[in-house]
Amino acid sequence: MGLIHLKDVPHLAPEQRWECPKCDLKQVTHEARVHVRMHPCRGLGGLTSPMVTAGTQCKVVVQHRDDYVGDEIVQRDENGRPVTGIAHVRDDGQDFTVFVPSARASMRDLDIDPAKYRTAVRNTVIKRRGRR
Q1: Domains of the chain by residue range
Q2: Which residues, listed in sequence order, are joined to residue 17 by a DSSP beta bridge?
Q3: Has this prediction a pTM greater than 0.70?
Q4: First and final CA of the chain: distance in angstroms?
Q5: Cα separation of 69 and 71, whole Å?
Q6: Which of 7, 40, 104, 121 is 20 to 30 A off residue 52, Cα-Cα?
Q7: Which residues are CB-contacts of 56 (< 8 A; sequence separation ≥ 6)?
Q8: Helix-, strand-, coil-residue percentages of the chain, each rounded to 5
Q9: What 8-state DSSP symbol labels residue 131?
Q10: Distance of alpha carbon 36 from alpha carbon 17, whole angstroms
């Protein structure tokens, strides 16, 4: 007798039907864990958006960033405007996907000596491999 996978047991891996309210994409998953299906949405200009359970009535609202963008790496819409997130508003509540900006830094900005950094990284890799 071999291993039994959860996807092979119907009650442990139920079928979940997904659809996107902004484009025509529909998908089916068989996953026992709680999950949300994400996709690059054509209706939102390629922004990564969650799909909703099939049949869910909701309004999709793109939240644009209102403040200054400096050196941060931000998600932008098809027109180049910075986006902070996408809300799926239903009668019984809302879900919000947040696009968190990333900061940039260089070793020079952090006052790190590149030679010491390379040595520290090499020593860490050697320790993880079990060598000294």
Answers
A1: 6-128
A2: 28
A3: no
A4: 44
A5: 7
A6: 7
A7: 19, 21, 90
A8: 15, 30, 55
A9: -
A10: 11
Identity of residue 52 = V
Residues 69-127 pLDDT 10s? 888 889 999 899 999 999 999 999 999 999 998 877 776 777 777 777 777 777 776 66
Distance CA(49)–CA(87), nearest Å, equals: 9
In the structure encoding, which two tokens stand for residue 38, read together? 């994400």
Token pair, residue 34, equals 């709680």
130, two tokens = 């079990």
> In Å, what is the CA distance from 1 to each residue of 85, 94, 131?
48, 46, 40
Burial of 49 (0-12, 13-18, 19+ CB in 10 A): buried
Dist CA 47 CA 81 (whole Å): 12
